[in-house]
Specification:
Blueprint (H helix, E strand, L loop, with lengths): L29 H21 L6 H8 L3 H7 L3 H19 L10 H17 L2 H13 L5 H19 L10 H22 L5 H16 L2
Length: 217
């Protein structure tokens, strides 16, 4: 894949010249996985300090100690890079959640707990959240795999909270559909919080109302 000389901006993908690992999959050798980890760590560090605009492909490559051309082989654009970073952060949240141990006497309480958990996690670092959310919202069809990965993680987190903690079954289509609606509302409110149109308390209250409207019988 060509390096940055073949791009007009960091948002534009470099034209491929050879097959390369997809940005959303853990593939390749241990060295490749380590290189990919350094790239994502560098991305998060830059975004945490300067937001979306601070994530420039050359700066990421320098901080991760990889060649710019190598970076483009892993991630065709900064949007792919940031959405993949978002997926990794959400996967880490998912890995800390034990569905059988979620607090709450019913699905509404468990859902509110999970929503508060991921909301507070995102609100702790506004610049990083702004960068990852902006990339997620800007992503076009070329980043479908990365976007779907993020959506799938959120769906699993929310749908899993709806299920009875002692029920080993996977979420049904109905439960996944409810999770997708809640996820869309959550993302919309996260954007409004980032643009200072609503407060953190507003987000919490709106999500609580959304859960009640969808699940209250």
């Amino acid at each position: 894949m060509a390096g940055p000389a073949s791009t007009t901006s960091d948002n534009q993908p470099a034209p491929p010249t050879a097959p390369a690992p997809t940005s959303g999959a853990e593939v390749g050798s241990a060295a490749q996985r380590e290189r990919r980890r350094r790239i994502l760590d560098a991305t998060l560090s830059l975004a945490s300090k300067g937001g979306y605009d601070a994530v420039q492909m050359r700066a990421v490559a320098e901080k991760a100690d990889v060649a710019v051309g190598t970076l483009y082989r892993y991630f065709p654009s900064k949007v792919h890079l940031l959405v993949t970073a978002l997926a990794r952060e959400l996967e880490r949240v998912e890995g800390r959640v034990d569905r059988t141990q979620l607090p709450g006497d019913d699905a509404m309480e468990r859902l509110k707990f999970v929503l508060d958990m991921i909301t507070f996690a995102m609100q702790r670092d506004p610049l990083l959240t702004e960068a990852m959310t902006r990339a997620f919202m800007f992503a076009d069809a070329s980043a479908t795999a990365e976007v779907d990965r993020v959506a799938g993680i959120i769906d699993r987190l929310l749908a899993g909270a709806i299920l009875d903690p002692q029920d080993p079954q996977e979420p049904s289509e109905k439960e996944l559909a409810i999770a997708r609606v809640i996820s869309d509302v959550w993302m919309s409110n996260l954007v409004q919080w980032l643009t200072r149109r609503v407060s953190a308390a507003d987000v919490t209250n709106r999500m609580g109302q959304t859960v009640r409207l969808l699940l209250d019988k």
